[in-house]
């Protein structure tokens, strides 16, 4: 019966019948030379050329990140610090401390952490709308409109006539955060998927270099490079936005936070312009209906008969080797009406769910990363800045990324490949946990010496403390550089992993599942609010370092077997299904 059904599937989907020819003509891979099994194992792998349309999308991301970070970099001071005497703009002048609402460190960290949680929770909605109804391009356009409205509300919260009334300003500010965060979420789940979709090849092929070396062009490596440079553009936007806006809030008694919120809004207008100009050049994947529900039905079908009152037995049954195999259409004597897909699509869903299992560990990583723009900014305010704004130091992170991303891409990663060291995606993520933990160790040591040298002792963050530690603020550099390394290893690789492991018609949703881990990381950070008071800040950084180190170790132990299957998972054949409400075959 299974053989008969397999024959029926091949008849229904003839373009997927690879029994006679693994590489059928598709207009994308025509004329290429594909590697033998021996060549797969022996030849060095390289990336392909990045399509120019991807750079246009990266420019959109750069402008959006300028507006996002250009605004959020001043959130901490806007909320935490009081309005300077005689100011109705919040500007601190050449030597003063900029501020507006005067709500303290805990409220500042609580609100900025909530904003991060909200901005990274809403990608789930963006991913669902794109995959199911609107498509990625249209969803991004809607997101840009929503975020623009949010930016306008933020400007209103900081104009002089509003900011002098603390409660009114706070209310408008929170509304602006909610609207902007919604737009950001709709945008983030789709822009990072759209850029990788500009590269259409999905199969390994062999080329000969100018030096006469035969190498394998690996689409996974190409996607990895695309995300490296996508992240580079992201941090160029973040760096310019943060530096510009940090000085805008401090520039003079006449220029303050309203300018720091207005300039990012102006730059943000680049986004709709570039999206419109490139509309006919982007590779745009149309929505395919509610395949998420189909995938959920598949999981329920596969889990049938595997539940038990014994949790251990249930877990063992769900992890069994035949869990997905027995749910494939070719194994069914009577196929349910909703099973409008082939065996390969089941394999893709299995791979996507495994990727989501990897993402479960990410909130622990984000816990260390999230110290960047909140607590480390406040830590800088308790040291000698020598005239620098305290929130300027956070720019060491994007600056380090701009410097080291090309170094990693041009030297480190190719050197590892030449030495046949398989620094796989999951190994990179593990390294991200380790460097994130090291960054927090550095911050904990710095905090210890702040308490030791501050005139206010272990009350260095008190609003009543008007003196600062003689320690030079630049000793924070180690924390920022180590966090940048952790982003290259964990954050960039997470984008790559989400794209390459998701079924084609669920890419935005799986990308959203990766991004939402940042929201859970922010929620986890909220649990540390009781430690964000003097004299417990040393314990805050130390505890985060320990959690990141232990979490990274547990992460590797749990996924080391999956790491061995990396190449196999990357080279799965694409599945086919009939989308809801259609009789046409869709390659997904």
> For the record, what CATH class of the largest domain applies?
Mainly Alpha
Q: Could you list the spans in which at least 5 consecutive residues all have pLDDT below 50?
A: 1-21, 579-588
CATH topology assignment of the largest domain: Growth Hormone, Chain: A
What profile does the largest beta sheet have? 3 strands, mixed
Task: List the secondary-structure elements in sequence, H or E.
Answer: HHEHHHHHHHEEHHHHHHHHEHHEHHHHEE
- Percent of residues in β-strands: under 5%
Helical content band: 55-70%
Distance between termini?
26 Å
Shape assignment? globular
Widest β-sheet, arrangement of strands: 1-3-2
Radius of gyration: 26 Å
Overall structural class, as computed from helix and strand content, comes to mainly alpha
In short:
InterPro entries: MFS_trans_sf, POT_fam. The chain has 588 residues and is mainly α. 62% of the residues lie in helices and 4% in strands.
Structure description:
This protein is mainly alpha-helical. It folds into 2 domains: 33-287 and 342-572, Growth Hormone, Chain: A (Up-down Bundle), CATH 1.20.1250.20; 288-341, no CATH class. It has helices at 2-12, 37-42, 52-72, 75-80, 104-121, 123-134, 136-158, 160-163, 166-196, 219-250, 257-268, 270-277, 291-303, 311-318, 343-359, 362-369, 375-380, 396-418, 425-453, 477-501, 507-526, 537-564, 566-570, and strands at 45-46, 205-208, 214-217, 383-384, 469-472, 576-578, 585-587. The protein has a 3-stranded mixed sheet with strand order 1-3-2. Strands 4-5 form a two-stranded parallel ribbon. It has a two-stranded antiparallel ribbon with strand order 6-7. β2 (205-208) and β3 form a beta hairpin. α6 crosses α9 (166-196) and α19 (425-453) packs antiparallel against α20. The longest helix has 32 residues, at 219-250. It is globular, with a radius of gyration of 26 Å. The two termini are 26 Å apart. Mean pLDDT is 85; it is low at 1-21 and 579-588.
């Amino acid at each position: 019966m299974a053989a008969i059904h397999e024959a029926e599937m091949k008849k229904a989907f003839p373009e997927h019948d690879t029994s006679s020819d693994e590489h059928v003509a598709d207009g994308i891979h025509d004329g290429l030379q594909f590697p033998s099994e021996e060549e797969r194992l022996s030849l060095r792998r390289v990336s392909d050329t990045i399509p120019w349309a991807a750079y246009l999308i990266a420019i959109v991301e750069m402008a959006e990140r300028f507006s996002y970070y250009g605004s959020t970099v001043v959130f901490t001071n806007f909320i935490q610090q009081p309005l300077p005497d005689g100011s109705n703009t919040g500007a601190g002048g050449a030597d003063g401390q900029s501020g507006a609402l005067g709500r303290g460190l805990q409220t500042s960290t609580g609100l900025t952490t909530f904003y991060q949680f909200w901005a990274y929770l809403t990608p789930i909605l963006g991913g669902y709308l794109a995959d199911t109804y609107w498509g990625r391009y249209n969803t991004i356009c809607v997101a840009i409109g929503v975020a623009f409205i949010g930016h306008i509300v933020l400007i209103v919260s900081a104009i002089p006539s509003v900011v002098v009334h603390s409660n009114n300003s706070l209310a408008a500010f929170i509304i602006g955060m909610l609207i902007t965060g919604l737009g950001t979420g709709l945008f983030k789940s789709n822009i990072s998927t759209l850029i990788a979709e500009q590269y259409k090849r999905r199969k390994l092929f062999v080329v000969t270099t100018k030096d006469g070396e035969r190498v394998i062009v690996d689409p996974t490596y190409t996607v990895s490079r695309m995300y490296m440079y996508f992240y580079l553009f992201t941090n160029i936007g973040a760096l310019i936005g943060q530096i510009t806006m940090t000085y805008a809030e401090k520039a003079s008694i006449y220029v303050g936070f309203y300018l720091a919120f207005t300039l990012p809004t102006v730059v943000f207008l680049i986004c709709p312009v570039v999206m419109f100009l490139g509309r006919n050049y982007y590779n745009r994947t149309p929505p395919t209906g509610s395949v998420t529900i189909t995938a959920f039905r598949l999981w329920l079908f596969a889990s049938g008969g595997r539940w038990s009152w014994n949790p251990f037995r249930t877990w063992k049954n769900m992890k069994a080797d035949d869990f997905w195999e027995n749910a494939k259409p070719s194994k069914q004597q009577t196929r349910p009406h909703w099973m409008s897909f082939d065996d390969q699509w089941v394999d893709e869903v299995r791979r996507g769910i495994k990727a989501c299992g990897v993402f479960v560990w990410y909130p622990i990583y984000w816990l260390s990363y999230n110290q960047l723009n909140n607590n480390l900014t406040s830590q800088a305010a308790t040291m000698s800045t020598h005239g620098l704004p305290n929130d300027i130091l956070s720019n060491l992170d994007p600056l380090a990324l701009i410097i080291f991303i090309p170094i990693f891409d041009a030297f480190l990663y190719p050197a590892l490949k030449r030495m046949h060291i398989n620094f796989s995606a999951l190994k990179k993520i593990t390294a991200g946990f380790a460097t994130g933990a090291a960054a927090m160790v550095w911050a904990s040591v710095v905090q210890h010496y702040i308490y030791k040298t501050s005139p206010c002792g272990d009350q260095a963050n008190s609003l009543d403390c008007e003196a600062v530690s003689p320690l030079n603020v630049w000793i924070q550099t180690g924390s920022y550089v180590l966090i940048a390394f952790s982003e290259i290893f964990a954050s960039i690789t997470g984008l790559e992993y989400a794209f390459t492991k998701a079924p084609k018609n669920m890419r935005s949703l799986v990308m959203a599942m990766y991004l939402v881990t940042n929201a859970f990381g922010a929620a986890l950070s909220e649990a540390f609010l009781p430690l964000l008071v003097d004299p417990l800040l040393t314990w805050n950084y130390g505890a985060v370092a320990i959690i990141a180190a232990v979490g990274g170790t547990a992460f590797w132990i749990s996924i080391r077997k999956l790491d061995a299957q990396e190449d196999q998972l990357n080279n799965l054949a694409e599945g086919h299904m009939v989308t809801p409400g259609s009789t046409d075959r869709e390659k997904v």
